[in-house]
Amino acid sequence: MDFASFGSQLVQQLVNGVSLGSIYALIALGYTMVYGIIRLINFAHGDIYMLGAYVGFYATTMGKLPFFPALIIAMVVAAIVGVVIERLAYRPLRNHPKIAVLITAIGVSLLLEYGGMLLVSPQPRTFPPVFGNEIYNVAGIIVNFQQIVILAISVALMIILTYVVNHTKVGKAMRAVSFDTDAAKLMGINVDRIISFTFAIGSGLAAAAGVLVGIYYNSIDPLMGIMPGLKAFVAAVLGGIGIIPGAMLGGVLLGVVESLVSGFISSTFRDAAAFGILIIILLFKPSGLLGKNVREKV
Amino acid sequence: MKLRQWKKVAGFVVASVMATALLTGCGGSQQGGSDTIRLGANLEMTGGNATFGGSAANGAKLAIKEVNSKGGVLGKQLSLVIADNRSEASEAANAMQKLATQDKVSAIIAPIASSSVIAGAQVNQDNKILAISPTASNPKVTVDPATGKVRDFIFRAAFIDPFQGSVMASFASKSLQAKTAAIYIDNSSDYAKGLGQFFKETFVKNGGVIVSEEGYLQKDTDFKATLTKIKSKNPDVVFVPGYYQEVGMIIKQSRDLGLMVPFLGGDGWDSAKLPEIAGAQALNNSYFSNHYSPDDNSAAVKNFVEAYKKEYGQTPDAFAALSYDATMMIVEAMKRANSADSVKIKDELAKTKDYAAVSGQITLNATHDAVKSAVIVEMKDGKQTFREKVNP
Predict the structure, then answer these.
(1) ipTM for the complex?
(2) Which of A135, B112, B234, B336 is the most buried (most CB within 10 A)?
(3) Do B129 and B208 fall into the same domain?
């Protein structure tokens, strides 16, 4: 392989990696927010992503809606479902051992997967072409319009989220609850409402990722959330779980690593590399790339 | 008062349910009168593979109708008892048990899926009831892997997985003049690995070079990294022996990346979902092997397609055709054996040679696999079109 073709392949793999990574990042944001507030790894998060994809699918096919209204409906429906799940499955267990909530989360995840299979059948569905797919060839590097849309929407949603968390009253309350729930309660913050709000935002973001993925890959099915859910979890840990910019960084890094591994080493090592990263991070820097080492309060 | 009334109603309901059960029970056993021969079908009528099982049941029913209208077999009419295995291997064993011991059928059309046939195989062996699967293509179906012995009561009307791999390799090197190939295998499926292995062997034997061997897993969605790598190796063809969902996404993403070479695959591609996922345009210049094509212009296929369309108002797929063939093979063996006894039928069935079936000339080999031609289907603007027939 000569240097020029190696160079162009490398750039192409970086493009592939960033577009894949921006999807991981969107899902990872929800994971990280929920973890940051109630210290729960919400395993049902990947299935909310699936649910969002299906809502988007029905909105565009049966509802004949264009892309943006369908995206917003999917986000709203997923947000409501996220809040309901929190209210019914997690809130009653809030003062129980963490492991009980974790197992409940796995149960909710399985319920959504196989309940979904019952409702919409295990057959894969395909999205109608909701927006064009022009292909741009810039000096041998191929980028398509959908990749640009995914990246643009991901970045936009992340900016909005950062603004909400850092510059609004609700965001301030979220940070307070995350910092110390009891103290926040004493300050007059309605903790339950803030947690519901967090679930709503996280689920909405996952649904947005679901719709984007459904359009980009053109195939959705009830078990589509399992692998991206796990990968997003790795991304969240990589960046530092509970830290919002960390989820973005982790997602994009993971996508790039996966692309480079399958492009230059072997496609069979791709998942091994992704989960290998998880193990290495947990061994050497459990708080993640952007995490600070905080001593446990005793 | 009210309670007593309710009890009365409940009693009546229970009694009538029991009576119905009793009546249908009787009906079941009376049906086996001396003027009919009963065949069983253990098929995927519900569950994930319901469309496959439904087609197969239609094919078998059509075959039986045709035989009966010509006076039946051995002077008797045929009837079909369908047992649903819900697309599950464990249910397939139960359904087999029911057909063999309760319905006392003479022969059984076995399930579509290899794993379901394997699950029920011991029941067939123990009860000495022959079963023939229309499509199960895994070599382990007819040969017990534990003992290496052929299961003498299990047959199939399909060719086995390795054959498809070599057919596509020959097609690539002879018809498409390919010198180099990339193989992209579904690593989570034995079926795909088998096809990949035999494709490689035959392609190399024909003088070709495999420039790249890559793998993916079921439910993967992003293949661009690997496809970029394959593209950099400049293969003449890419062989993707997986199932339609991932294959559809792979072909779509390849075309997006400007990888325009022909894509090849096996019967796992045979689904109306494939053009929906990949897009009709992207699928042009891709080919897969199958058991049969409704566009084949041989007389047997034409007659079958016409009769099937008349009966069900749709074009028969490979499952319907192979199930029709399997039923007809049983009938032929029954005629030769001059008996409806399963042990005698299976001896004759094993001797099937050059039987002119819808899906080609069928000869059963020593391991009960059908040796017959494969069909190569070309995708043109989202439609399956018949390209050529490859003889074994």
Answers:
(1) 0.82
(2) B112
(3) no
